[in-house]
Amino acid sequence: MSPPGQEERLHVRARQAPEPRANVDTGLPVLDHLLGVLARYASLDVSLAIAPGEGRAEIAAAVHALGTELARELRAPGARGYGSAAMPAAEALAHVVLETSEAPLFVSNVDLSEARLGGLGSDVVAETLRAFADGARINLHVRLIAGDDAGNVLEAMFKALGVAVAQACSRKE
């Protein structure tokens, strides 16, 4: 569902699926890939598209809307509402912990301020994860345990986020 007033510029849908698929078009190929990784590891069907040429504020709004869509899955009757995962990508290892909360928060020790990957700066990644946490209404903690290559660090972070989301959406036993 799109936020009010953005129906023409933004389309977002996310739901759990046995065979996840991601159709993501933010205008930033690296971010599209990372959100696809999140969808695959979280077992989600994700459709997210914004109008071509939109800026960073619109990308943040799209990711916020994605989080809002996932808030329903995270708070469904019987859902755990919390998850934790550590995932590797080559030499990088990231740990992500999340929990539903009425006071969303994003905390990270990842500093990629000097890194540039496909034109994507770390501030865009931090903005993306903060917007996601706000939309999903979760406390989201991202810890980099090891890793120097920016691409591998980002891949490990989004893999771990996906697994933690899958756990949080799973049913309590």
Shape: globular
Q: Enumerate how many helices there are, as a single number.
A: 4
The Rg value, from CA coordinates, equals 15 Å
Q: What fold name goes in the CATH topology slot? A: Ribosomal Protein S5, domain 2
The CATH homologous superfamily name equals: Imidazole glycerol phosphate dehydratase, domain 1
Structural class determined from secondary elements: alpha/beta
- In percent, how helical is the residue content? 25-40%
What's the total number of strands? 9
3D structure, described in words:
The chain has 173 residues and is an alpha/beta fold. It has one domain (10-169): Ribosomal Protein S5, domain 2, CATH 3.30.230.40. Helix content is 39%, strand content 30%. It contains four helices and nine strands; from the N terminus they run ββαβαβββββαβα. The chain has helices at 29-42, 56-74, 122-136, 150-169; strands spanning 10-16, 22-25, 44-50, 82-89, 92-100, 105-108, 116-117, 120-121, 138-146. The strands form three sheets. It has a four-stranded mixed β-sheet with strand order 4-5-9-6, with helices on one face. It has a three-stranded mixed β-sheet with strand order 1-3-2, with helices on one face. α2 packs parallel to α3 (122-136). The radius of gyration is 15 Å and the shape is globular. Mean pLDDT is 86; it is low at 1-8.
